[in-house]
Specification:
Layout lengths: L1 E4 L20 E3 L12 E6 L14 H10 L4 E3 L5 E3 L2 E6 L5 E6 L13 H12 L9 H5 L5 H5 L10 E5 L2 E5 L21 H7 L16 E7 L3 E6 L13 E6 L3 H9 L5 E3 L2 H7 L5 E14 L9 H9 L3 H9 L4 E2 L17 H5 L7 H15 L4 E7 L2 H17 L4 E7 L1 H9 L5 E6 L7 H4 L16 H11 L7 H17 L3 E13 L3 E2 L1 E3 L4 E2 L4 E2 L2
Helix pairs in contact: 8-11, 15-16
Length: about 550
């Protein structure tokens, strides 16, 4: 057996990196160790409202960030993306990489005083896989190769056959069908957090609908829930690592208007605020300006149930007509970069240590004349000019990008009409889930640092797949890479992923637009935040007096 055991000392190791450039990650990790807890409050402005606090239903970054404040997993990623112990104090990995045995800490408990046990993890992982839950994130069990996950999700095997077990209250065992190099890094992801069966069943349909309908086991408890306004988290004194939780209350305040949020920041009422593109020039030389490259990648998805959008020439025309650099540099101006493919830059590195994007190359072609030629072919097949509707959400940046896309497409493809459908994010997500849209401006934030987290979005033979795109060649390459003949060969697996991305984009299955940059103003007195290309961590914030 290979054994691992560390104290979670990374919380006290990092130095603040304010005003950094657009690198692959940026952190201002936890302040130096201190026995004195800073009792101040910190407020974070958010431009997307909370969707759900049910960690098996959530699909968006805002919800995941809040769940991570008040719940905890077996591990937590440090500022370098490495798994460090959280509710598990240690773990063992079998020599073949198929069996992970997690040893829970003594004394960890829920906010009602009950102990957190291994059975809480078994129940939670089974609920994630349960077809009755219909979680859009159930695929993540298959992504890490949990034994029988595909069959359980598909309803072909009983929940009891999922590869999880609790031989005793403090031991949680996960059995995989194939080794997974990123397994541990996902143990701090909310989908894998525990859930107490007794409490959940007593709550019924009310579970996670209010602060009183949840149990907490993380650094904070949720103490205020004002939909469309603000959400407050108060330090949990019973959290095992409470000595390294430095702030008594953290509030997420929903403010879509960045000018209003900036006024609140300048008044000292807000400590973190995103900056809209038109404000970057005014603030970029100001103390507290913070800029970094995120892993979120924005794209346009097509509803393939729409007859016009089944026309590949139309999809090609839409993709080639866009000037992505203009969107990133002139519309956003926040460090965003134009997409070079489906997989973002500086995100995943192959067995040779080379960035996936560098190996795969730039797969995006922008050429107005080629776009117009493709559109003429599309018109001939469709019997005339096309009319499409672009669905997008109501954040300022999304509105600005959508309006620019409309202008570019209607200018560069004369005769094409792009109607606009502006919706709140929660509604936009539901419409796309229900296939009640034509073209959707959407994004994906990677759950782990491997191209599979993006590739699986279009893999139609995945149990529980809810998309509208299907390509047997694409599915076949990913089957080889994920569970087939190349799964245990890192170089061959990587080559399959590169080939699959090319198939996807040669078919114009989606239109990658840009990779998110982050431009923010952050109170210089605040430290302890971690912004990485895959996730954000606000757990260990500390504000100087």
């Amino acid at each position: 057996m290979r054994s691992f055991k560390k104290l979670a000392s990374f919380f006290i190791a990092c130095a603040m990196l304010a005003g950094c450039g657009s690198g692959a990650s940026a952190s201002a990790g936890s302040a130096a160790a201190s026995e004195t807890t800073d009792t101040s409050s910190i407020t974070i402005a958010i431009d997307a409202d909370l969707n759900t606090m049910d960690h098996h239903i959530a699909t968006d970054g805002t919800s995941f960030n809040m769940q991570t404040m008040c719940l905890a997993g077996l591990a937590e990623k440090d500022e370098n993306g490495q798994a460090q112990p959280d509710l598990a104090e240690s773990w063992d990995i079998s020599d073949d990489g198929l069996v992970y045995t997690f040893h829970l800490r003594d004394g960890i408990k829920w906010s009602n005083g009950d102990p957190v046990t291994a059975n809480d993890f078994v129940f939670a992982w089974r609920r994630l896989a349960d077809p009755a839950t219909a979680s859009e994130y159930n695929f993540i069990l298959s992504s890490i190769h949990v034994l029988n996950a595909d069959e359980v999700i598909a309803g072909e095997k009983d929940l009891s056959e999922l590869g999880v077990a609790a031989p005793d209250d403090s031991t949680f065992v996960v059995t995989l069908s194939l080794p997974c190099s990123f397994m541990l890094s996902l143990m701090g992801f909310p989908s894998f957090f525990p859930l107490q069966q007794k409490f959940f069943e007593a709550e019924g349909d009310q579970y996670a609908q209010s602060i009183d309908d949840m149990l907490y086991c993380g650094p904070y408890t949720m103490t205020d829930w004002q939909t469309g306004n603000q959400y407050t988290f108060t330090k949990n004194p019973d959290y095992w690592n409470a000595d390294h939780i430095y702030t008594d209350t953290v509030t997420f305040k929903f403010l879509q208007d960045t000018q209003t949020a900036l006024l609140e920041f300048e008044s000292g009422n807000i400590d973190f605020v995103k900056i809209a593109s038109e404000q970057v020039d005014s603030y970029k030389d100001t103390e507290g300006f913070f800029n970094y490259l995120q892993g979120f990648s924005w794209r346009m998805d097509f509803n393939f149930e729409n007859a016009a959008l089944q026309n590949k020439d139309l999809r090609e025309a839409i993709s080639k007509a866009l000037d992505r650099k203009a969107i990133a540099e002139n519309v956003l101006k926040d460090g965003s970069v134009p997409a070079e493919g489906f997989i973002p830059v500086k995100f995943a590195y192959g067995p040779d240590g080379v960035d996936f994007r560098e190996t795969a190359g730039d797969l995006i072609v922008e050429d107005v004349s080629e776009a117009q030629a493709a559109y003429e072919k599309a018109k001939a097949a469709l019997g005339g000019d096309a009319v499409v509707t672009l669905l997008y959400e109501d954040s300022e940046s999304c509105k600005a990008v959508a309006e620019n896309i409309q202008q570019q497409l209607e200018t560069n493809l004369p005769g094409l009409t792009v109607n606009m459908d502006l919706e709140p994010k929660k509604t936009r997500l539901q419409l796309m889930k229900d296939h009640d849209y034509e073209i959707g401006l959407t994004r994906w934030g990677p759950d782990y640092e491997d191209p599979q987290t993006f590739m699986d979005l279009f893999k139609s033979d995945t149990p529980g797949y809810t998309g509208t795109y299907s390509n047997p060649e694409y599915d076949g390459l990913l089957d080889k890479a994920e569970t087939g003949e190349d799964a245990a060969d890192p170089a061959a697996r990587w080559a399959d992923m590169i080939a699959a991305e090319k198939v996807l984009l040669d078919d114009y299955a989606c239109v990658p637009v840009y990779q998110n940059g982050g431009a923010m103003m952050i109170n210089p007195k605040v430290s302890g935040y971690i912004f990485k290309i895959t996730d954000t961590n606000y757990r260990h914030l500390k504000k100087e007096a």
